[in-house]
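Hi support team,

I've been running sequence recovery on a batch of backbones for a student project. Most finish fine, but this one hangs at about 90% for roughly twenty minutes before it completes. I'm not sure whether the input is malformed or the queue is just slow. I've pasted the structure tokens below so you can try to reproduce it. Let me know if you need the job ID as well.

Thanks,
M.K.
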């Protein structure tokens, strides 16, 4: 058996999330600015000769069965290489919270594809890995690439954007989970006009302005759901010095952008009353599909 090799599965936040319509197949058309963050799960994996795909999970009660995205990703990679002899064994250490809007499952699947590709000597390009991962979830292509990207369509059309300015991010996960299908249903039912957030966020990124970015971030789900706990966390972050605060994805994590590290550390102490809190930083695109944690 080869020596176990690590790959980091980075979480993501949505600096902007606009809902632009709905396809005939029921999938929603989105325009988003997505950002990798240094809060990550850790994947270890190696090829085996027994033809089996196995997974162990630490730090979570998620099932490590055939429905797990890591297992599905490994099987998809083996099929794509027409490898009928080898298997793959994995251990996943979870840190990204579940039902958080941070793409934890998609990031884990992307890490499996990157790791298996690297151990095989990079038989697939980044673009090929993105296409391979799309059937597993709309966020998987972004999680393969990482960094700062505009995502369109159902999330699979990616355009690199200027890197997010250096800052500290505070993530707060309240003890509530939000159903993504329910969030979309409420968005569909909402008749209030939607203010697009992506253009202002992109402009702030090109200006490399943390303050402008804090003012520009926004999320259509945040506007539609109007959850009291989310609103309270956002307001608390702003009181503690965040230049901006917003819910990510369909929730329930709220992130705050801090231009001063000491404000972020102080805010973490104050926000612990609202839920689990994590400090992290933006992460750049992944060179060679793998980088060390920030």
């Amino acid at each position: 058996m080869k020596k176990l090799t690590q790959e980091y599965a980075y979480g993501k936040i949505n600096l902007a999330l606009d809902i632009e319509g709905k396809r005939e197949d029921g999938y929603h058309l989105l325009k988003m600015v997505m950002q990798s963050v240094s809060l990550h799960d850790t994947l270890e994996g190696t090829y085996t000769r027994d033809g089996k795909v196995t997974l162990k999970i630490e730090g979570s009660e998620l099932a490590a069965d055939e429905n797990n995205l890591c297992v599905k990703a490994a099987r998809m990679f083996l099929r794509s290489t027409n490898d009928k002899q080898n298997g793959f064994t994995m251990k996943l250490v979870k840190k990204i919270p579940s039902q958080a809007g941070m793409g934890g499952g998609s990031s884990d699947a992307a890490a499996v594809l990157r790791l298996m590709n690297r151990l095989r000597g990079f038989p697939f390009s980044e673009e090929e890995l993105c296409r391979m991962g799309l059937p597993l979830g709309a966020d998987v292509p972004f999680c393969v690439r990482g960094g700062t990207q505009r995502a369109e369509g159902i999330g699979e059309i990616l355009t690199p954007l200027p890197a997010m300015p250096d800052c500290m991010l505070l993530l707060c996960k309240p003890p509530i989970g939000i159903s993504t299908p329910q969030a979309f249903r409420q968005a569909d039912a909402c008749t209030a006009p939607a203010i697009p957030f992506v253009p202002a966020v992109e402009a702030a990124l090109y200006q490399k302005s943390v303050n402008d970015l804090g003012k520009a971030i926004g999320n259509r789900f945040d506007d539609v759901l109007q959850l009291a706990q989310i609103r309270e966390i956002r307001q608390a972050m702003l009181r503690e010095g965040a230049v901006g605060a917003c819910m990510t994805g369909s929730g329930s994590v709220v992130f705050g952008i801090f231009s001063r590290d000491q404000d972020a550390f102080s805010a973490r102490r104050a926000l612990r009353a609202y839920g689990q809190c994590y400090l992290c930083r933006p992460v750049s695109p992944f060179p060679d599909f793998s980088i060390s944690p920030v």
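--
Follow-up from support: It reproduced on our side and the slowdown came from queue contention, not your input. The longest helix spans residues 104-119. No action needed from you.
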